[in-house]
C-alpha cells in the first residue's frame, strides 16, 4: 500500500501537509487496515489556528460520474477506451439493468470493466491511467469484509447464520454483474475481481458536495472516490477532522480540528461517516461495527427459522407480518451498558400488534385469517357494542387497538404478553443455536457480529429474568429525543418478496 500512496502523490497534484502520514491502524478490532495520522509537533507554528489543512485533492484526482461522462462522450480511436465504452454502454442500455442504475453502481461497473480490459491483452501499451492504477493497487488489494464478500474468513457462516442480515439489493446486483461480465468476457472467471472492487467501492465512496459553478452557494452531491482521504477512519467519539469543498475550485480539503485533537505528538485523524450509528448499516457498507459512548441502534432481524414455526393463539406470526407488510425487525438501543428496545417508534407497535388482546375476551386474538382475502381481518366493536370483522391496514389496526387513551391498558398488556410468550422464547431459541457456532477466525467480521448479538441477547435475557425495564420509554421517557432516527436496513432475500418494485428501487438508490 505504501507504493500506491507514493505513486498517487507523485502523479497527481495533491497537496499534503508534512504532518500527515498514512500507516497501518487498529480501530475497533480491525488490525489490518490503514489510517491517517498527524504529527502535531510539525504544525506548532499554526497552533493559533482552529483548523489545519492536511490534504487538498483536486477533482482530477478523484473518480466520479464526471470522469465517466468525459470518457463516454470522448471521441477517441484508442482501442482500450473504445472497448470500455462499448461494454459500459451495453450494461447501461440493458432494460433489465435499469433498476440498478445509480451513480455508485455505475462507478462500480466502470471500474470492473476497466480493470478487466487493462489487465488483458486488449489493453493498449501504457494505457494504465490513474483509475486503473488505483483499482489495481488499492481497491483490489483491500479485502473489505462486507457480509456479501464470499472471499473473507467465515463467509459460509454469514450465509448459514445471518442470511437475514445479507442485503439482497447488494446480492442481486453482484449476481447481475457476474452474469453480465461472464457474457461479455466468456471463458474468463472474474468473480473475485467483481466482489473485491464492489466491496471496496461501497466502503470507500464519499458523498462529496460540488458547487454548481465556481463561487456559487448552490451545491449538488455526488458519490465520489477520493484517494488518500478514503484512508481516514470513522469515530463519532474521537472525531477530530472533517472534509469540505473549496467553493472557488471544487478541491476537496481535509481539515484537522485542533480544538478536538488530543494532547499528544502523533494522533490518528478521525472523521465521521455518519452522525448516527446503525450497526447493521455499518456492517453492510463498511464491514465493521464501530464503538461509541453515544446511543447506537442495532436493527435486529428475527431468525426466520424461528419465525416461520411460531404460532400465537392460532396466528402464525410470520404469516401475519407478511400479510400486514410488517418487517420483522426490532430497533435495539445500545447506550453504555444498557440494552433497550426502542418502543418510541411506530414499527415497535407493529411488531407487538399480533399479541394484542381481544377487547371482550383475553383468551382470543382480535385477528383472524381470511382465506378469501388472503390476509388477516380485525375484530372490532361498533358503536352499538356489536363485533364485526373488518379488513384493516396495520396503521388502522394500531390506531383502533392502541390509539386512544382508553387503550393504554391494552398496549401495556400486549407488551407484557409479547415479552412473556414471544421474546423470552425467541431469546432462548436463538442463544441455544448461536452459542454452539464455532467461527473459523476470532478476528473475522462474522465472529465480531456474533459476539455483539450474543451480548445483546444475554443482556435482554438478564433484564427480563430480573424483571427490569427492557424498553427505552420505560427507562428514559423524558429522553426520547436522544434516539437517532435511522431507517431499517435493505431487505434480505427472505423479505424481498414482500416488497413492491418501488420499495425495492428506494433501497437500491440509498444502499
UniProtKB/TrEMBL annotation:
SET domain: residues covered: 18-274
Gene name per UniProt: CTM1
CDD domains for the chain: SET_LSMT
Annotated organism of origin: Kluyveromyces marxianus
Protein name: Cytochrome c lysine N-methyltransferase 1
Organism domain of life: Eukaryota
InterPro entries per the UniProt record, alphabetical: SET_dom (IPR001214), SET_dom_sf (IPR046341)
Amino acid at each position: 500500500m505504501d507504493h500506491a500512496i507514493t505513486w498517487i502523490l507523485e502523479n497527481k497534484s495533491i497537496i499534503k501537509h508534512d504532518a500527515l502520514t498514512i500507516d497501518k491502524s487498529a480501530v475497533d478490532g480491525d488490525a489490518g487496515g490503514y489510517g491517517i495520522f498527524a504529527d502535531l509537533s510539525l504544525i506548532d507554528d499554526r497552533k493559533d489556528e482552529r483548523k489545519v489543512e492536511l490534504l487538498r485533492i483536486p477533482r482530477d484526482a478523484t473518480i466520479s460520474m464526471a470522469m465517466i461522462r468525459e470518457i463516454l462522450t470522448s471521441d477517441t480511436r484508442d482501442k482500450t477506451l473504445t472497448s470500455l465504452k462499448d461494454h459500459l454502454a451495453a450494461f447501461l442500455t440493458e432494460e433489465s439493468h435499469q433498476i440498478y442504475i445509480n451513480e455508485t453502481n455505475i462507478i462500480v461497473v466502470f471500474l470492473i470493466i476497466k480493470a478487466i480490459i487493462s489487465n488483458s491483452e486488449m489493453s493498449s501499451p501504457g494505457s494504465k491511467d490513474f483509475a486503473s492504477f488505483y483499482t489495481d493497487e488499492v481497491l483490489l488489494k483491500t479485502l473489505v469484509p462486507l457480509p456479501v464478500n464470499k472471499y473473507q474468513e467465515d463467509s459460509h457462516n454469514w450465509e448459514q447464520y445471518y442470511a437475514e442480515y445479507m442485503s439482497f439489493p447488494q446480492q442481486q446486483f453482484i449476481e447481475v454483474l457476474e452474469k453480465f461480465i461472464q457474457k461479455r468476457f466468456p471463458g474468463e472467471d472474474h468473480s473475485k475481481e467483481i466482489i473485491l472492487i464492489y466491496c471496496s467501492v461501497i466502503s470507500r465512496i464519499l458523498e462529496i458536495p460540488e458547487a454548481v459553478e465556481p463561487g456559487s452557494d448552490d451545491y449538488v452531491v455526488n458519490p465520489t472516490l477520493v484517494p488518500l482521504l478514503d484512508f481516514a477512519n470513522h469515530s463519532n467519539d474521537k472525531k477530530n477532522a472533517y472534509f469540505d469543498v473549496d467553493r472557488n475550485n471544487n478541491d476537496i480539503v481535509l481539515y484537522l480540528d485542533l480544538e478536538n485533537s488530543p494532547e499528544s505528538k502523533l494522533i490518528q485523524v478521525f472523521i465521521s461517516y455518519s452522525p448516527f450509528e446503525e450497526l447493521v448499516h455499518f456492517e453492510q457498507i463498511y464491514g465493521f461495527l464501530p464503538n461509541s459512548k453515544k446511543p447506537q441502534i442495532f436493527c435486529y432481524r428475527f431468525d426466520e427459522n424461528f419465525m416461520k414455526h411460531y404460532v400465537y393463539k392460532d396466528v402464525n406470526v410470520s404469516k401475519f407480518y407478511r400479510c400486514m407488510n410488517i418487517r420483522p425487525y426490532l430497533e435495539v438501543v445500545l447506550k453504555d451498558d444498557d440494552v433497550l428496545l426502542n418502543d418510541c417508534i411506530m414499527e415497535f407497535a407493529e411488531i407487538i400488534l399480533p399479541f394484542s388482546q381481544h377487547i371482550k375476551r383475553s383468551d382470543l386474538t382480535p385477528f383472524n385469517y381470511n382465506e378469501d382475502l388472503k390476509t388477516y381481518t380485525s375484530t372490532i366493536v361498533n358503536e352499538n357494542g356489536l363485533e364485526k370483522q373488518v379488513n384493516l391496514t396495520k396503521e388502522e389496526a394500531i390506531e383502533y387497538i392502541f390509539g386512544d387513551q382508553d387503550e393504554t391498558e391494552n398496549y401495556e398488556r400486549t407488551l407484557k404478553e409479547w415479552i412473556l410468550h414471544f421474546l423470552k422464547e425467541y431469546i432462548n431459541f436463538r442463544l441455544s443455536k448461536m452459542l454452539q457456532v464455532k467461527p473459523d477466525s476470532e478476528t473475522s467480521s462474522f465472529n465480531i457480529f456474533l459476539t455483539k448479538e450474543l451480548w445483546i441477547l444475554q443482556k435482554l435475557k438478564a433484564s427480563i429474568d430480573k424483571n427490569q425495564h427492557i424498553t427505552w420509554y420505560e427507562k428514559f421517557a423524558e429522553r426520547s429525543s436522544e434516539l437517532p432516527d435511522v431507517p431499517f436496513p435493505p431487505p434480505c432475500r427472505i423479505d424481498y418478496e414482500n416488497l413492491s418494485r418501488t420499495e425495492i428501487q428506494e433501497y437500491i438508490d440509498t444502499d
